From TrEMBL:
Source organism (scientific name): Evansella caseinilytica
Metallo-beta-lactamase domain boundaries: 12-192
One Gene Ontology molecular-function label: hydrolase activity
Cofactors required: Zn(2+)
UniProt keyword annotation of Zinc present: yes
Protein name: Glyoxylase, beta-lactamase superfamily II
Highest rank taxon of the organism: Bacteria
CDD domains named among the record's database cross-references: metallo-hydrolase-like_MBL-fold (cd06262)
InterPro entries: MBL_Glyoxalase_II, Metallo-B-lactamas, RibonucZ/Hydroxyglut_hydro
Keywords in alphabetical order: Hydrolase, Metal-binding, Zinc
Amino acid sequence: MKWKQMPLGPLQTNCYIVYKENGAGVVIDPGGDAVKLKQWLKEKEITVQAILLTHAHFDHIGAVEAVRTAFHAPVYVHTNEAAWLSDPQLNGSGLFSGIEQISAGKADNYLFGEGPVEIGDFECQVYETPGHSPGSVSFYFPKDGVVFSGDVLFSGGVGRTDLPGGEHGTLMKSIHDKLLSLPDETIVANGHGSVTTIGQEKEDNPFINGFGW
């Protein structure tokens, strides 16, 4: 399995394309710049089998409809954010001046609970990691040693909790109970900035160290 980080949209949110040698792929958090994203997928001859959303904030969903339409790919989001795709007040695009309001159609599939999931040619572990938003999830690929964590855990930081549905205590519990239980060498492919590892964040992240790590 291979994966590519591609910053997209007004906040340069990290979209990830996970793909295999046979061309099968999934797109995680297509935040915008639909033309650029679609062009890369077509040049690489990627067959998009699904669009996976770590959560439904506007900067993670801006190109959802364009990718879904172009590749006939089903969209997956946690059930706690089922209404967010179509509601700019919930997804945040209606809360900031100067930001284009983002609206997409309903998801095709809803995630609920935790455990292994098979999507096309891919298998991963879904973890519920709320706190940044109520439906935040992380997609862990144990064979490849990478977790796509959205805006839960960053290099040297953690997700903001001042948007609707955010709660700092819940976020920290998600990080400690779910993400920090992964092997130290696990790559954390997050929503903004550079990738990191679980071990690196245990050692250097002040938010985590402040809680006894």
